[in-house]
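Notebook entry, structure prediction.
Reason for the run: the old model in the group folder had no record of what sequence produced it. Starting over properly, with the input documented here first.
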Amino acid sequence: MAEGSYWLVVLVGGVVGFLLSLVFNHFLPLLFKGGLVPKGTFGWPLLGETFSFLKPHSSNSVGTFLQDHCSRYGKVFKSHLFFSPTVVSCDPELNYFILQNEGKLFECSYPKPIHGILGKVSMLVAVGDTHKRLRNVALCLVTITKSKPEFLNDIEKIAIQILDSWKNEPKVIFCEEARKFTFNVIVKQVLGLTPHEPETSKILEDFLTFMRGLISLPLYIPGTPYARAVQARSRISSTVKAIIEERRRNPDENSKKRSDFLEILLSVDTLSEDEKVSFVLDSLLGGYETTSLLMSMVVHFLSHCPTALQQLKQEHQKIRSMKQKHDHLDWEDYKKMDFTQNVINEALRYGNIVKFVHRKALKDVKFRGYLIPSGWKVLPVFTAVHLDTSLHSNAPQFHPWRWEKQDPTCKIFTPFGGGSRCCPGSDLAKVEVAFFLHHLVQNFRWKTEGEDEPIAYPYVEFQRGLVLNMDPCSETTM
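New structure, fully documented this time:
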């Protein structure tokens, strides 16, 4: 009896101790140099205000959480998000300061479950020298690739194949078609695989499982989306390793694949084998999801802006008129797509593919009288800056013409992040979207079916997949 009472006391004491630690972890930071940290509230113990912060909203709005907190506390405020005391910044100067001081005052700090899916050496979560080496390789590959005729021809060929498949389809689910296009492009470019090869289907099946896990509850319990995603990543890694080994065993075979990322990557001696495999996975992820979402946003916003669509069509008709019927687009053609770039930039500003990024303060940081304590999470919110009416005229409107005068490299436009973690593949994404639009606007008219818009939760998606009613143009130019 006495022994049973002892273990009961131990159990109760353990539970009480755990609860007290949660309470102290939550409220103690409120007392830490409280007069200097930004104003704000921490919300509930442990969970803080995370659920309110992640509440779904249109991606071309800041959402009720940011509206409410900015009106109460200003553009910089404290909160408790993702199990950590946090400073949230909707201020362009502080955001720029954070991005430019990566590795000095701040570092990338995504939640641990993301590391479990992406892997420890993923460029998206790596820090320090590891990130620098991976990024340098990525920039080198993009520079080599983006203007190569083989790459541009592959993009155009795959775009035409996708659009040809719509000829007898009265409606399409555009998000699915965009993902099909971007996956086929990135798998061809990274691994040299065509859509019909068995490895492509295998990678796609596992990759879809992987993607579902990224937005799931992070519980590693057999059968959960998160656990299946971790397992899918392992299978993709095994497939990529097998392709690498095949390349090394037969260096003179399949010479048609020799211009892909993997062939160049194999000659890089600054990366380990695991880093090379992780680099391939990062390339697939970046080239698949974000590019397809950008395509969907452009098509969605154009369907509600007929003036922009008409000007875009005229630009591409002019480019096509200077070429023979079956001539491929080239880099010189791409450089003539000025209004196309304006449309893409405006979709990035207005649609906000990336709402915010995760950072952590490496030391106490003072900025404009604020103190950001060491160890606190820091969230620069890009959406708030992109939609700030004091920074962008008619910010709540899709208006591509603003980019005729506004510099897309300015501090108040950061769709791909900034500093040393700015997305290295952004130029490739813009080329893909531009080439797809070239053929789309000349060969189809479309209308969106029903009410559908990009929703941030926190990753952006169209809830109905962006259903389009398609009408082929009478005079085809494909």
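Summary: The CA atoms of residues 220 and 227 lie 5 Å apart.
The old model has been moved to the deprecated folder.
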